[in-house]
């Protein structure tokens, strides 16, 4: 059959199947990301029925998916909110980076994969999935909880850190050397600062240039601006994803609100394509050897995320149940981890098994994370917390030793 016909057949069947998987995921209360990854594994290289006619289209669609994921994330925050969160949550962000990037770095070095793979794997284990966590908080009715701002602050710090990490990683993967890598980092930092200043001072004018009253014009304007800035950012060695994120930050008010509504279906479509593409380029025959390392890494880093959320919530005076909810909510990894691994795959300069390890790792955390987030709502867990609190209160308080007090006459 003609190539165009094969493309339509493959793409139509794939999207229809993804729709069924998305519906299944909602019925069982899980994120659809692992199902999309599994679909990619099933129809990719080494899968049961490889897709050939539509692979190039899916590759382009996956790039658009990353861009839409990041611009939508940027639309959730204003520049002022980001600056405020950066100041108040900086200690929690530092704890998060140290506790969660270190295991990935150490793991890659222990496996003998080299320092470049260590930088990649450290980023994969560091950053949580904003999309999955936002859905978990919404599904569990915790959006208004006292600990939720703590969780969101940690996620915002991670997103800002990615704006610096991704261009630096891109430069390192391209083998440009330490000097040019540092230059890329400086350009990224300067770009972020300039965009934040422009967003704070002139964001209202940028938003005014895009009419919120005309849905068609708004959709075309925001999407075109996002793709344009993402392309320019990529030319400047500042990740296209970061450029899209900064566009989202620059928009505010009714424009941001209506753009979110208009772009949401497109984001869902191309984000699904992105996760499928990552599965397509991963040979499932490479996954069994890395399942045990991926499981080990997942157990360690889910524990460090739990500790991150617990300490961050305790720092602002949240009670113990809220500390556990914050820590358990931060466990899933997702879109950013896949983006980082995708950059490594595209560069072709790191250990090939890293792709399979990252896929297995994300699958484990994104499936078990939302399940574990429900623990604080279970009766036995609440009872355990009450017993723990009672035991702490009943513990005798030590008194300093010294001479006996004189007895009154």
From TrEMBL:
Q: Would you tell me the protein name for this molecule?
A: Potassium/proton antiporter membrane subunit, CPA2 family
Q: Which GO terms describe its cellular component?
A: membrane
Major subcellular location class: membrane
Q: Which GO molecular function entries does the Swiss-Prot or TrEMBL record give?
A: antiporter activity
The lineage's top-level taxon is: Bacteria
Task: Give start and end of each Cation/H+ exchanger transmembrane domain.
Answer: 20-373
Keywords assigned: Membrane, Transmembrane, Transmembrane helix, Transport
Q: Which processes are annotated in GO (biological process)? A: proton transmembrane transport
Would the keyword Heme be found if you checked this record's keyword annotation?
Answer: no
List where in the cell it is found: Membrane
Alphabetized PANTHER family for the sequence? CONSERVED INTEGRAL MEMBRANE TRANSPORT PROTEIN-RELATED (PTHR42751:SF6), SODIUM/HYDROGEN EXCHANGER FAMILY/TRKA DOMAIN PROTEIN (PTHR42751)
Topology relative to the lipid bilayer, per the entry, is: Multi-pass membrane protein
Q: Which InterPro entries match?
A: Cation/H_exchanger_TM, Na+/solute_symporter_sf
Record carries keyword Membrane: yes
Q: Which residues cross the membrane?
A: 6-24, 33-51, 57-77, 115-138, 150-176, 182-203, 215-234, 240-259, 266-282, 294-313, 334-350, 356-373
Q: Gene3D superfamilies from the entry? A: 1.20.1530.20
Spell out the Pfam families in the cross-references: Na_H_Exchanger
Annotated family:
Belongs to the monovalent cation:proton antiporter 2 (CPA2) transporter (TC 2.A.37) family.
UniProt source species: Micromonospora yangpuensis
